[in-house]
Specification:
The structure holds two protein chains of two kinds. Chain A is built from 13 helices and no strands. The C terminus of chain A is likely disordered. Classes of the chains: A mainly alpha, B alpha+beta. At the A-B interface, helix 3, helix 7, helix 8, helix 9 and helix 10 of A face strand 1, helix 1, helix 2, helix 3 and strand 4 of B.
Chain lengths: ~280, ~140
Amino acid sequence: MPITEKYRKNVVYAYCIIFYLLMLFKWWNGLFLYQLQPSLFNNRFDLFTWLFMKTGIHQWLPHNSAGWVLFDVTFYALPGLFLFTYIKSLRASVIVAFLMLLVNWTYIQTYTLYPTNSIESYTAWLLFPLLFLAINLKSFYLIFHGLRYFFLFFFASAGVWKLVQGGVFYTEEMSGVLLYQHKEYLTSSPNYWYSDLIYGMIIHPAIGYGLYIAGTVLELVFIIGFFTRKYDKVLIAAFITFLVMDVLIMRINYFETLPFVLTLYYSRKSFSAIPPALLIEVD
Amino acid sequence: MVVSPFYHYGMYSEVIRVKASYEVFEIWVNGERLQGKDFSAQQWDQVILPVQYFAALNTKSNPLYFNEIKRLMAKIGLKADEEKYVATCNYNQFQWWYKQYLNHIVKRDVAGVKILSRGYIFQQTLKPTSTYTDLSALCQ
């Protein structure tokens, strides 16, 4: 099926819906900057972050309640503003998309320097504004599929790293991971059903190792996506399984990667069949 | 080294062995230890992560500047000013902030907070030892 402007519209609407559902989730869980009230930062091994830190924003923000609100309002308002301008004028929406790109990079770089979450799970917010910079459908199509390849790389590389770094060849790996991940929980809540469940996997390494192998296979399955789009719906199921299992077993949420699902869901649309007249976009 | 947004998406890919002993943070509020079971995963992270970040200032975060950031930034011709990358260990300030912060999460008046890093030995379950260090001693 050829892509049309309706295809772009669906992606924009779906992106905004996911963004605002996640916003509610984060607000409910006290994860806005104004709720977290950060007071300290840690460095990470990222050259771009080091360049960003030269601005000193990460030091200005702690203990600056007005700054937290300013950051939150700007970050969470922009997708809505983008949608509004997109409905009114595609060309105007590109300006907002550029603004969103700058704000998202600033917000995510700063936010993840504080005790929140690792920056790896926020790449969707870093990259999707690039998609909305495209005026013509051809560029939109190409960037969209670039994001799809990035998402495939995200998972496939996690599987490959497990082979390269050897985690997958160590039968007690998952026991070690679970102890490392949950040690504060396990020691503070002994005899609770969840602690019993985790301890069960730790002291029966075969169960934990089986899950670790299953997780690695699930990640490696994403390699298929580099060669064909035929199984993208299967990859969506694999991704949802990953999200759910990560919450249940690791108590880690990767929900912020959800926008990438769109790149799999809409991947079967082809660009080749599109009539040339539709390639030129007008407001 | 990585460059945003191309990170090392390892997701526990390195070999993580089961150790004989672990250092575990204990958060005590008004004389009672906070228990993970009473919090959602997100809330529990909010309780534990600031403590881990504070404890890591002098063991990971600041050494990263002196060992890598300064050197690698110089290699690309950029000056990395120490004040932008190095955070001071101010335990009193952190404790004051953490107390106010916990008030929002535990939803009760936090009169006193004690944060310990206690040794646990692993024998089927994690068992506490009598050896512990106060958080104030971990970052001086």
